[in-house]
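From the shared-data thread, chain only:
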Amino acid sequence: MDGHRIAVKGGYTRCIYEDVMKTTIQKWGNSLAVRIPRPFAEEIHLGENSTVDVSIKSGKLIIVPAELQVTLESLVDQITDENRHDEVGTGSRVGNEVW
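Structure, as tokens:
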């Protein structure tokens, strides 16, 4: 050991100075899979079925949480009888509004 690495539960090796953890690429069907160590997943709020963006930059594989895609449908799906409000009065017409 070079003094910069410590063993952690699960057989991973973590470099305490660079936030690097070694893991193994494994076959998953016809693809390859990377296991993300729990401390890393927790730090960036990844869980099972989280969506991520995968890219390659300067010869390095980059995996980052995908930005949340908000759609009108996903917002409407959240409307319930408990959070639906009554109509809001805005007063009488001021200009040429047609009601």
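Confidence is low (pLDDT under 50) at residues 1-9, 12-17.
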